[in-house]
Amino acid sequence: MNILFLAHRIPYPPDKGDKIRSFNEIKYLSKKNNIYLGTILDGKSDKEHLEELKRYCKEVYSVYFYKKLRIIKSVIQDVPFSVSYFYNFDLQEYVNEILENENIDIVICFCSTMAEYIFRSRPYKEKELNNISLIMDYVDLDSDKWLQYSRYTRFPYNLLYKLENKWLLKYEININRTFNQSVFVSQREVDVFRKLYPEVKNVHFILNGVDSDYFTPEKSTHNSQNILVFTGVMDYFANEDGVKWFCENIFHKIKAEIPDVLFYIVGNRPTKRVRKLSKIKGVIVTDYVQDIRKYYLMANVCVIPLRIARGLQNKILEAMATGNAVVATTNASDGLIYHKNVDIIIADEEEAFAREVINLLKDEKRRKEIGIKAVENIQQHYSWQVNLKAFDNLLNA
Fold first, then answer.
1. Which of the four pLDDT bands, split at 50, 70 and 90, describes residue 221?
2. β-pair partners for 107
3. I need a surface site. Which of 87, 216, 234, 299 has the fewest CB within 10 A?
4. Cα dihedral sign for 334, 338, 342, 343?
5. Which residues, 6 or more positions from 99, have their beta carbon under 8 angstroms from its beta carbon?
6. In sequence order, what DSSP letters do the residues of 286-321 get, joined into one string?
């Protein structure tokens, strides 16, 4: 079949949650289908990654444009800020041409914002898409993410985020009414959407996976130092908020009992707020690293202190796949299949989070037991090859 795949961020390299998922979807679907990829570059340098994507796609079309300062445009067009942020006329023209000339069977929009390219396409306006199946992979329920943001930001941003929550939820509902199939990353996302919109139809969840050949549980030599690790793209507000909360409210409690403990914040594009955390004794901010496995292998405990979270956290999957004991908040782990205190530790209050980390650092035997169970969990539930087979049913439907 011919598939038009629209991604709001270039799906390569797969070094960020949504890009990991979109790349693996393309890689899987390309085995039996022709993929026409339309995508948006994060930066001009991303052009160097297009050749890799051409290995899996019949055609790759990309655009780069300045995305900020689009609030006024969003208000004028009466669409959510997120939709305006990712909309581009050149990419729209590409979508029009592909739909009109390439005998497309399936359209997969990756992230709700990409539905706009279908809604504004000439074939859609002229009601000529009846023979094309439309599939939306929302991944996360983004509208709820903006509501969470509003709770952790000050005026006037909290008001803007509440407004985006309202607009985007209305938009997500319209997508579900219009598209043939709707997909989320976990059962939790489906349940939240169904609670907000009881009339939801044809909604499914397809779990993420982990490349178990890449992320393995082989540990490096024993660390004499006690090391905590957090990984993630560090200009993402939820990650920034999480590590700031941990450093300012939890880390000192751990240091009081384990003075030599180090906390590594590992990830690309750390903001000024994140960089300032390195002034705290024992906190190391790495910026971009070539191979993140090095830090998973040196970690004694991986911490995921996210107060804001949607979907399924790939950082948890990777940490578990490498045999680490993980301490995470309920929000960070809600989309995960897990057994509490068996393959992952859950804690939300500052005192409880600190105590769980301290106990693990002091008990190597328990860390190893949790790590072993974590690897078993990943092998049982999080294979890309197994989980993405669910797409076959959607394509046939």
1. very low
2. 4, 134
3. 216
4. negative
5. 4, 107, 121, 122, 123, 129, 132
6. ----S-THHHHHH-SEEEE--SS--S--HHHHHHHH
| Three-class SS state of 51 | helix
Q: Is 202 left (phi over 0), alpha (psi -120 to 50) or beta?
A: left
Distance CA 260, CA 284 (A): 13
pLDDT tens, residue by residue, 299-354: 999 999 999 998 899 999 999 999 999 999 999 998 899 999 999 999 999 999 99
Assigned token pair, 392: 């076959």
Evaluate whether 94 touches 72 at the Cβ level (below 8 Å): no
Distance CA 263, CA 282 (A): 6
Dihedral sign for Cα atoms in the order 117, 118, 119, 121 = positive
Q: Are 288 and 235 in contact (CB under 8 A)?
A: no
Q: What is the rounded CA–CA span in Å between residue 304 and residue 328?
A: 4
For residue 372, with 0-12 CB atoms within 10 Å meaning exposed, 13-18 middle and 19 or more buried, which class applies?
middle
> What's CA 324's distance to the chain center, in Å?
20
> For residues 114 and 175, what is the distance between their CA atoms, to the nearest angstrom?
10
3-state secondary structure of 65: coil
Torsion of CA 9, 15, 21, 26, to 10 degrees: 70
